[in-house]
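Hey, sorry to bother you again with one of my protein questions. A protein chain has come my way and I'm curious about its shape. It would help a lot if you went through both lines with me. I owe you a coffee for this, so here goes:
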Amino acid sequence: MPTQSHDGEGGGRFHPLAQSPIRYGTADAPPAELRLCFSGSSGFTRLSFHVVDAKDEAQIYQRGPEHSMCVDAALLAAWADVGVPAFAWRLAPQPSASAFESPMQATEYGRARLELCRALYPIRMRVWTNAQLNAERIVHPPGDGFACIDAFAVTAENEELLLAVTDDDAVPPGNG
């Protein structure tokens, strides 16, 4: 599948950082690709996800995390939302300088790509090394597995989490 910078609806310009093979729709659907893209366009999140089919036609666009512009947050969102683990991402080919709207956007793309590399390499190294060594895990889930925590329950923990993502002036606990 070709991976290239492209224009989206609403005037956004998107530049692929990484991609992962997936199947879109059903488990037996034809191969597709999930792309993590950078955008420096006004009105768009720094990072977003795009599903493209084998003909490189867009199927889905999803804004990246609103609470954080960092690559780590996008990788965690992809793992939680669609099940793509961080170690499964592959770097997309770098776009040419002419693909960007400005030299500043090319620089920002380069920073995002560097951030991605710094996030992916240690994860990939650990997962691959553990698999090659048949390393036995020493930390295991509890007997009944990890519980999905009710994000809507009225608890002090949920209150603190919600405040952190909705209030830019939030003060760390114990400091206010």
Summary: The CA atoms of residues 14 and 39 lie 5 Å apart. The mean pLDDT is 88. The chain has three helices and six strands. The two ends are 52 Å apart (CA to CA).
